[in-house]
Specification:
This protein is α/β, with parallel strands linked by helices and about 240 residues long. The chain has helices at about 45-55, 80-100, 110-125, 150-155, 155-160, 190-200, 220-245; strands at about 5-10, 15-20, 30-35, 55-60, 105-110, 130-135, 175-180, 205-210. It starts with 5 loop residues before the first strand and ends with a helix.
Length: about 240
Amino acid sequence: MLNTWERYELAGHEVDWYLPTPRERPLWGVIYLHGRDRVLLRDEPYFTYWLERLQLACVAPLGGEGWWLDRIAPSFDSQRSPEDFLLHEVLPWLEKRWQLRTGRIGLFGMSLGGHGALRLAFKYPKTFPVVAAISPTIDLYEAWGQGSELDLMYPSNEHCRLDSALLHVQLENWPAAIYFCCDPADFWYRGNERLREKLTVMGIEHTCDLLTSAGGHSWDYFYRMAEPALRFLREQLERYTRRLL
C-alpha cells in the first residue's frame, strides 16, 4: 500500500512531497525537478512505487517553465529564480521537516528537469553530491529562439549555452556520484554524448546509459529508466553517508 502525496505551500509556491512507509523521519531524500510538460510524480504511480520500495522521501517543487535556472521566469516568479528557491527555501525546509542535510539529499530530474539537476549538481557539488538525470536536455540553448521562456531569460543562444550544465563542470570540484541516461533515438542525445566525453576526458567518475532504447524522448523511456535512476540515488546516498561517518 503506497502512501499518498501531500501538497504544501512554501514561500508562495506549491511543493509536493512524499514520505514512504513508515511515515517517520527518512534517512534519504530526493528533490525532483519536473520537465517542461510539468507532469508531476504524484500523478505517476510507477515512480511512487520505486520511491516507496527504495525508502526515498521526495519533495517536488512546481517550477513552471523556469528550466530550474538562476534567471527570472514569469511562469515561476517575478522576483526570484527557481535556483534561488531551491537553495534558500526547499533545502532549509527539508532540514527542518525531516532533518535531511547535505549528503542525504539527492537531485533527480527528467528532460528539462534532468538538465536542471545536473547543472545544479555541477555548480554546487558539495550541496548536491548525488545526482541522477533521465533524458536531460543538455543542449538546452538549442531551444532558445523557439518561443520558450529561455527567450526571456537570455539575450542569445550563446548566453544560454554559457549557463548550461556542460559549462558548469568544474575540474577540481564535482559531485561524488553522477548518473544520466538518454535514448539513442532522443533528439537531445548528442548533448548527452558530449557530456560523457567531457567527463571522461576530465577523469570525472560517472555512470551513464546511452544505449538503452525505449521510445526516444517519451514517458515510455522515462518509465523504463525509473528504477535504475532511483536505485542509483538510493545506493549512492547510502554510500556517501557512510563516507561521512
